[in-house]
Amino acid sequence: MTKKLELQVLLKDIISKYIVNYLGSSTTINVEAEEYIENDSSGTLISPLNEFMNYVDIRQSQSLIYSIDGSSRSFISSKGIISIASVVISSSITPIFGVYPPISGFPELDLKRPFLALASSSHQSPLIPFFYNSDFITTLSLDGTFFTSANSPEEIETEIRTVLETEALKKIPKDGSIILLDGPLIPPLIFLKSKVRDEVLKMRLEVMRSNVIGVVKRLDKSRLLISSLSKFGSRFSERFKIDPRKYFNDESFILDFIKSNLSPPYVPISLGPILRKIGNIPLYVNYLVYPLHPYVFKFSILRIESLVNDLKIMDQVSSLKFTRDGIPFTLAIADRTAKEITNAILRIVVTTLESMGMQASFYSKLEQVGI
């Protein structure tokens, strides 16, 4: 059994031995930038129009439910960027199945992956970054290049957070349970360089199983549904009295779709399925519309992604206990706990570094007050 580490002791060691020394060292070396390429988000509706909308059969789920969510934040100073990530697994039996990095009082996920990344604002010699790597901290991206402040905080956070979430999937027993993953099954990773993105996707695909379900909560930027339905032209609007071509995001379209086609008492429905391909991997996407009250026009709208085309998945998700905000309860616990861990780590790091004279950038000052 591995010895448990106290997070504050671990962070004190990281700050004194790694962060201060690494961000304070500099030399000269050439750095080449690489462009980002956004993934294609188009899909194809694979059901006939008369089967596009289905009523969901709510039954008490007998399966054990696990939920995974990660969180990340960054501290930016004149010396460089410090990015922090955490991951939490919750379950329908144990609210907190495991957390990483290790926190006293919580079950630990022994991931052996860095949760903290350093990006210097000055050029480093080729050897220096290697001296500042450990089980918990990294200065190197997955493509072998070292992080610099030329990288955006979002890029660094996306890489270390996605890796932690992927590694956490390996810690869940393969016992016929259902695993809810916060966000897309295969994330777009638009901030990452092509080599890093390919490596992260390879890692994710190696651990994907048919019982892993992606749950996308924010649909105000999603266009997958309206893009897929627009291919039907006027046939869709003639049947459902609404034209998806007039909308800019899936969420606004779905809400007006409900107004045009349903009336109280509202019951859960699913829209889809849509076939979406990421490389050679087929993903099946359905939209769950879950009424928060049968007679009030207020809904939770979730995009559900799976490797299998099975509408029973929608029945299973809708049978879960939901929060008042319309999120599956276990997923909400993982989300909240991961954010609390990341924020706590950030406060410790920021407070310690500022006491040592390292000044936050204007961006980080806004982040600290929640703007």
List descriptors.
371 residues; alpha+beta; twelve-stranded mixed sheet; 10 helices; 32% helix; 21% strand; elongated
Question: What does it look like?
Answer:
It comes from Sulfolobus tengchongensis. Pfam families: NurA. InterPro entries: NurA_domain. Residues 63-340 form the NurA domain. This is DNA double-strand break repair nuclease NurA. By secondary structure, the chain is α+β, with helices and mostly antiparallel strands. It is elongated and about 65 Å long. The chain is built from ten helices and twelve strands. The protein has one domain (10-217, 262-368). Strands 1, 2, 3, 4, 5, 6, 7, 8, 9, 10, 11 and 12 form a twelve-stranded mixed beta sheet that branches. The model is unreliable at 26-40 and 362-366 (pLDDT under 50). The longest helix is centred in the last third of the chain and has 27 residues, at 329-355. 43% of the residues are buried. The protein has helices at 7-24, 128-131, 153-169, 194-207, 224-230, 234-240, 250-261, 312-318, 329-355, 362-368, and strands at 44-45, 53-55, 65-77, 80-91, 98-100, 116-120, 137-138, 178-182, 212-216, 269-278, 281-291, 299-306. Strand 3 and strand 4 form a beta hairpin. 32% of the residues lie in helices and 21% in strands.
Q: Helix and strand layout, with pairings?
A:
Layout: H1 7-24, E1 44-45, E2 53-55, E3 65-77, E4 80-91, E5 98-100, E6 116-120, H2 128-131, E7 137-138, H3 153-169, E8 178-182, H4 194-207, E9 212-216, H5 224-230, H6 234-240, H7 250-261, E10 269-278, E11 281-291, E12 299-306, H8 312-318, H9 329-355, H10 362-368
Parallel strand pairs: 3-8, 6-7, 8-9
Antiparallel strand pairs: 1-10, 2-10, 3-4, 4-5, 4-6, 9-12, 10-11, 11-12
